[in-house]
Write a structure and sequence with these properties.
alpha+beta; Porin; 59% strand; elongated
Length: 186
């Protein structure tokens, strides 16, 4: 009777570890990243990525802040964005990440909304603001070193700048985007 109880407990333990192995074989399903170029522009841009459907789709949510004016003016730019990604043909992945890790080539479409607020610091008066909307299609490739991700990407799209007061006409211009993220996959 004790042997049977031990055998049942062993079978349950192996099925639990087998279930854990099956859940982990897809690899990390999340990534938190920073855009190092944003640090050079007096700001910070962060993003969170979640694998929505392994081997197929992930979704990126982003936020950023920067101060882009100097001298007699100060400004803050606040940005939020969303980017669905489609993962392409699978590159060879390190075994520790699992067979379906978010590694290799991808295509993405990123939508960003930005708000600029500018102040004249000599008069301590608000000068104005600007709203920017952009849509950029991109191609990227994620590399990893252990669980650290390095993701360069290139994108092409359009940006529309809008005066919220309506005094100026909207301005549409092309956008060429060279980007890079460094982060942690978990």
């Amino acid at each position: 009777m004790k042997l049977t109880t031990f055998a049942v407990a062993l079978a349950q333990a192996s099925s639990v570890s087998g279930a854990a192995l099956a859940a982990d074989e897809n690899g990390p399903r999340n990534a938190i990243s920073v855009h190092p170029f944003s640090l050079l522009a007096h700001g910070v841009a962060l993003q969170y990525e979640r694998y929505v459907s392994p081997r197929r789709f992930s979704l990126v949510l982003a936020a950023g802040f920067r101060s882009s004016s100097r001298g007699d003016y100060s400004s803050w730019v606040t940005t939020v964005g969303v980017e669905p990604r489609v993962w392409l043909a699978r590159a060879e992945r390190p075994r520790h990440l699992g067979r379906d890790a978010m590694v290799g080539p991808y295509l993405g479409v990123r939508g960003d909304a930005a708000w600029l607020a500018m102040t004249d610091t000599t008069r301590n008066a608000w000068v104005g603001g600007n709203m920017g909307l952009s849509l950029v299609g991109s191609f990227g490739w994620r590399f990893t070193v252990s669980l650290v991700e390095l993701t360069p990407s290139f994108g092409v799209g359009a940006r529309t700048d809008i005066d919220p007061t309506g005094r100026l006409a909207a301005w549409v211009r092309p956008v060429y985007r060279l980007d890079w993220t460094v982060g942690w996959m978990f």
